[in-house]
């Protein structure tokens, strides 16, 4: 389980056709810049396995205060926007807190996927419980190399104002009330583990239940 105070920032960049080489170099330079950010715990970079070129950057920060202090200089979204000629659309970025995490560090994670789900605030708690009940099952965990499940909010000027106002008390409570996003990250050492995870009855059951509430946006990735 991840430390409860850590803040996860997820950034998605959709790249224009024919710009992949330049975009990859730019995003790698952003990852290098982030390594010197105060309060940064870790960063991971992934690329989509589909025809649409999408890059995913995961950064984990000590806490909300570390992110608030660093974001003017080190926000991945802002750094991506220094090269808008490479992007098909505005980068997407979310601030999330961990709900569940699992790690098996002996196996390198080559393949991954993200599950992005947006719900009505009145329904998100029930859907969250459904996912967590499934992810706590050892029979499903055994097919994963590294994974986490998180909940959060779009990183917008409104979110920043909420965080600033509530930074002394209630930051996480404010975000919890405003949040409508659930985010799952799953990774595997090989294709067989990936197929076994998706085929498992527990995963199939929770997927069917959740899709009755809202669609699940699934993006397949490979680690860079």
Automatic annotation (TrEMBL):
* Domain of life of the source: Bacteria
Q: Name the Gene3D superfamilies on file.
A: 3.30.70.100
Pfam assignment, any one: ABM
Q: Taking every annotated instance into account, which residue ranges of this chain make up the domain ABM?
A: 9-70
**Family matches, as InterPro entries:** ABM_dom, Dimeric_a/b-barrel
Q: Please state what the protein is called.
A: ABM domain-containing protein
Organism the protein comes from: Dictyobacter aurantiacus
The taxonomy runs: Bacteria, Bacillati, Chloroflexota, Ktedonobacteria, Ktedonobacterales
């Amino acid at each position: 389980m991840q430390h409860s105070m850590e803040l996860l920032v997820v950034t998605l960049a959709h790249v224009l056709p024919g710009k992949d080489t330049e975009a990859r170099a730019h995003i790698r330079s952003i990852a290098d810049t982030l390594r010197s950010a105060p309060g940064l715990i870790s960063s991971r970079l992934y690329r989509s396995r589909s025809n649409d070129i999408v890059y995913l950057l995961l950064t984990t920060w000590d806490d909300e205060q570390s992110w608030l202090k660093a974001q003017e200089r080190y926000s991945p979204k802002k750094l991506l926007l220094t090269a808008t000629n490479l992007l098909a659309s505005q980068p997407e970025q979310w601030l999330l807190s961990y709900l569940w995490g699992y790690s098996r560090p002996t196996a390198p994670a080559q393949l991954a996927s993200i599950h992005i789900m947006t719900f009505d605030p009145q329904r998100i708690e029930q859907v969250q419980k459904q996912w967590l009940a499934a992810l706590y099952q050892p029979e499903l965990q055994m097919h994963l190399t590294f994974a986490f499940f998180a909940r959060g909010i779009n990183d917008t000027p409104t979110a920043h104002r909420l965080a600033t106002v509530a930074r002394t008390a209630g930051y996480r409570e404010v975000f919890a009330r405003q949040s409508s996003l659930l985010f799952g990250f799953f990774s595997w050492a090989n294709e067989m583990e990936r197929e076994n995870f998706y085929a498992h009855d527990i995963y199939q059951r929770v997927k069917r239940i959740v899709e009755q509430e809202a669609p699940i946006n699934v993006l397949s990735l490979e680690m860079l």
